[in-house]
């Protein structure tokens, strides 16, 4: 009975160890240039973070503004030169007011974000989606260890169930871990330390304001672009039955692309 109980727990820990090695092994690439704000946004917040930065890039250029009922809509300015591909993709598909997430989920925007992601994957800063899928396939059987140990019963069942649950905790931690590699996490921490001053960037310093959003995400959006963030629904899910927000853009627009 002890052997029957031990097998699920031992197998779970072995799979967890293999998954951790696959997930955490360092990348082989190297990036010898400065990251753009959209790339920093992806490093921090994944695809959603990159798309948010691209939209803020457009907003700071006056190319989009907050619309009615938590949407964004085309602004008065044209798309300036020098914007990121993610910003260009969002601008190109924004023909009518859309919630930011619906805009970001269009195929053209997703393709542009994938291009950014692949660049960081080659640089060893982000784990590829293929590796993420491989890790999760290894982790799936881990979640069965505790139920199998409990079903087997026996005098020491509580011990093996406990070990199975501990393996579950480790599996969950790996499952939800951001796609940043250890090198990517170290770079993000260094960038946040080196550019801590951008937290106080104002509308008169759009480049630094965009970098602040890239580095600090929702915290920067709420603190430094509160009106646009609220009116556009940038940090919300698309509402099923949106309330009448009274419309209106916020007037926090700029003449350059901010990045």
Report the principal-axis shape.
Answer: elongated
Question: What is the strand arrangement across the widest sheet?
Answer: 1-2
Oligomer: single chain
Helix content: 55-70%
Through-space gap between termini: 64 Å
Class by SSE composition: mainly alpha
Mean pLDDT across all residues, rounded? 84
Number of strands: 2
Order of helices and strands: HHEEHHHHHHHHHH
Binned strand content: under 5%
Largest sheet: 2 strands, antiparallel
Helix-strand layout with pairing:
Elements: H1 2-24, H2 37-60, E1 64-66, E2 72-74, H3 85-93, H4 100-104, H5 107-122, H6 129-139, H7 145-152, H8 157-176, H9 182-194, H10 206-216, H11 218-224, H12 226-232
Antiparallel strand pairs: 1-2
Helix pairs in contact: 1-6, 1-7, 1-8, 2-3, 2-5, 2-10, 3-5, 6-8, 7-8, 10-11, 11-12
Can you tell me about this structure?
- The protein has 259 residues and is mainly α.
- It has helices at 2-24, 37-60, 85-93, 100-104, 107-122, 129-139, 145-152, 157-176, 182-194, 206-216, 218-224, 226-232; strands at 64-66, 72-74.
- The protein has a two-stranded antiparallel ribbon.
- A hairpin with a 5-residue loop joins strand 1 and strand 2.
- Helix 2 packs across helix 3.
- The protein is elongated.
């Amino acid at each position: 009975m002890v052997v029957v109980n031990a097998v699920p727990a031992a197998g779970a820990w072995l799979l967890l160890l293999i998954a951790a090695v696959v997930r955490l092994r360092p990348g082989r690439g190297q990036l010898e240039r400065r990251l753009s704000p959209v790339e920093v946004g992806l490093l921090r917040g994944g695809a959603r973070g990159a798309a948010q930065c691209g939209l803020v890039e457009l907003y700071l250029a006056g190319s989009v503004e907050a619309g009615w009922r938590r949407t964004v809509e085309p602004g008065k300015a044209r798309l300036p030169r020098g914007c990121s591909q993610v910003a260009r993709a969002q601008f190109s598909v924004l023909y009518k007011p859309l919630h930011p997430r619906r805009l970001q989920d269009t195929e053209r925007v997703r393709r542009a974000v994938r291009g950014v992601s692949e660049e960081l994957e080659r640089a060893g800063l982000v784990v590829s989606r293929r590796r993420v899928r491989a890790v999760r396939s290894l982790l799936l059987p881990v979640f069965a260890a505790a139920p199998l140990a409990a079903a087997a019963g026996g005098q020491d069942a509580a011990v093996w169930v406990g070990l199975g649950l501990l393996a579950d905790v480790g599996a969950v931690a790996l499952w939800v871990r951001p796609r940043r590699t250890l090198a990517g996490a170290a770079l993000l921490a260094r960038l946040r330390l080196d550019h801590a001053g951008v937290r106080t960037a104002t509308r008169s310093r759009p480049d630094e304001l965009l970098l602040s959003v890239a580095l600090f995400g929702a915290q920067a959006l709420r603190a430094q672009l509160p009106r646009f963030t609220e009116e556009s629904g940038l940090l919300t899910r698309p509402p099923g039955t949106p309330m009448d927000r009274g419309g209106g853009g916020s007037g926090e627009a700029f003449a350059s692309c901010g990045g």
